[in-house]
Amino acid sequence: RSMLVKKTRVIPFECIVRGYISGSAWNEYKRTATVGGMMIAEEMQESQKFANPLFTPSTKADNGHDENISYREMLSRMDEWIARSLKDKSLSLYSYAHDLLKSRGILLADTKFEFGSIGSEIILIDECLTPDSSRFWEIDSYEIGTSPKSYDKQFIRDYLNTTGWDKQPPAPKLPQDVIDKTRDKYLNIYKIITGNELS
Fold it and tell me: pTM value?
């Protein structure tokens, strides 16, 4: 087996698209009525769908935690055409994936993309639309104001929040049952998306 790869110049931003308000976006909204630094006019509940998906970038930190920034801040850190290209590509990819997954009983609540450049061409790099980079919800359990059943790493986040961990390394060791349940969630979403099974 082999894979053909190309070396790119990584653009050091994570391009996050949010179709529904959840996770860190929900926490920010409760504090400031903003998401990604943008004022949200309507009153929202947890897991509610935005009228239009939001582009909420963050810096890509080599060490420590990524920093959420506004699109306006992103524009100030790079050429405008690059920032607009990242935003447009991210929103287009999200919309395509959301519609595809919805037909399979899954809501793509939010996800992140990363991009690199080869000359003047901007291309998608790294993982995308995986349980590590996305929030996948089961449509049948979706209800505004609740936290829907998910097939992603939120299960691990929820467990870690019960441990009192201060989010500084090293992370607590995960119990075997948490590992097993996470594995099952990842295998299930793989089967739902691809129609195939991983052994």
Answer: 0.92
